[in-house]
Amino acid sequence: MSGALTPQILLRAYAAGIFPMAQSRGDDTLHWIDPRKRGVFPLDGFHVSRSLARRIRRMPFRVQINGAFDAVLEHCADRPETWINAPLVALYRALHDQGHAHSLEIWENETLIGGVFGLNLGGAFFGESMFSRRTDGSKIALAVLIDQLRAGGFQLFDTQFLTPHLASLGAIEISRTAYHARLAVALKTIAHFPPLGPAPNHDQLVQRITQTS
After folding, report:
1. pLDDT in tens, 32-49
2. If pLDDT is split at 50, 70 and 90, which confidence band does 2 have?
3. Which residues, 6 or more positions from 49, have their beta carbon under 8 angstroms from its beta carbon?
């Protein structure tokens, strides 16, 4: 399947509610996944603990969007077990060049300490993977991402599967039928990533996220 898979076919698959994964980084074979239960992040339900709020306010980080897509992709794939293989890396890079795949990076000075990447179609954002090289690096990336998705008018944040880590931050699991209904609405929505206008500062970010959490 991977040899015939193109960026356009991949986008049509996401619009149909399915996505590809590999068994491992060294396996060139891709498999279509259509989970019976789907993980999603309610955009008004991100959980900010007191410790995370303190870290966001005090940590000297800066945010960049699409500034180091390849580096985020490589960090996400750099783990003992990963579903991101070489064909998927090539597809994600092509979709990034076409404006459909994005990265959000958390920097401490000149060091990349956390990030997340995913794809967007209409008002749906499909989160693919994230990484952290400092305490709470990926949590901060998710907090900023959700703020940006809200500001950009997104209706759906798909996390594919629900993990204990994502659940602790407010992600939930819904049925395949419910997911497809939400996806259909989101695909008809006009959204912007990144959104128009300036990003919030650290205090504003905590305030905006916690107002609807």
Report:
1. 999 999 999 999 989 999
2. very low
3. none
Model's pTM, two decimal places? Answer: 0.93
Over residues 69-118, the pLDDT tens digits come to 999 999 999 988 899 999 999 999 999 999 999 999 999 999 999 999 99
Q: How far is the C-alpha of 123 from the C-alpha of 156, rounded, in Å?
A: 6
- Asked whether 102 and 120 are in contact (CB, 8 A), the reply is yes
Task: Classify domain 35-80+105-211 at the CATH class level.
Answer: alpha beta
- Half-sphere CA count of 74, side-chain side, radius 13 A: 5
Domain locations in the chain as residue ranges: 35-80+105-211
49-78 in b/e form (b: 16+ CB < 10 A) is eeebbebbeebebebebbebbeebbebbbe
Q: Which of these, 33, 39, 2, lies nearest to 157 by C-alpha position? A: 39
Measured between alpha carbons, how far is 49 from 9 in angstroms, rounded to an integer?
40
Instruction: Give the integer Cα–Cα distance in Å for 162 and 97.
Output: 29
Burial letters for 109-137: b for 16+ Cβ neighbours within 10 Å, e otherwise?
A: eeebbbbbbbbbbbbbbbbbbbbbebebb
Q: CA torsion 191→197→199→201, rounded to 10°?
A: -140
Helix (H, G, I), strand (E, B) or coil at 84: coil
